[in-house]
Amino acid sequence: MSGTSRASEKKRNDSSAEGFSEEERAAIKARTTELKVEARGGRGSKKAAADEAAVLSTIAEMASPDRALAERVHTIVTATAPELAPKLWYGQPAYAKAGKVVCFFRSGQVDKERYSTFRFSVEANLDEDSGMWPTSYALTELSEAGEAAIRKLVKKAVS
């Protein structure tokens, strides 16, 4: 085996031994913190206000253009489905019904991807008769048509 082959093999083995990327480890750490906060309790409007403040703070810390996208998504979701409660999920803005996440925003910059996403969880009521439906949408900008599509999907998701 040549020196180059051994070096690339060692690098491949080292990265697979680590398991998770730096971004994945950060998301897991964020989720662990979120679960600890949830376990400590807090109910009602005080907890809801704290959760929304945490979401807004996270959005405010995002770099452009993700911050603008996340702000717009937050406004659309909270106006379209006020029954969805904002909360952090894996360190990203999410919207839950009865404590279960229905939809969420993922920053492309945080994930080191070329676009952000707006996604729906298995809790979303989006099932279609065809047995196949999309649950994740790439976002690079939000046109009026894109905003309308999100509103329609969120309405259906909570129906």
Task: Provide the spatial order of strands within the biggest beta sheet.
Answer: 1-2-3-4-5
CATH architecture: Alpha-Beta Complex
Q: Give the termini separation.
A: 60 Å
Mean pLDDT: 86
Q: What is the succession of H and E elements?
A: HHHHEEEEEH
Which features characterize this protein?
159 residues; alpha+beta; Aspartate Aminotransferase, domain 1; 5 strands; 52% helix; globular; disordered N terminus
Describe the structure in brief:
The chain has 159 residues and is α+β, with helices and mostly antiparallel strands. The chain has helices at 3-18, 22-39, 44-61, 66-80, 144-158; strands at residues 85-89, 92-97, 100-106, 116-120, 136-139.
Structural topology:
Layout: H1 3-18, H2 22-39, H3 44-61, H4 66-80, E1 85-89, E2 92-97, E3 100-106, E4 116-120, E5 136-139, H5 144-158
Antiparallel strand pairs: 1-2, 2-3, 3-4, 4-5
Helix pairs in contact: 3-4, 4-5
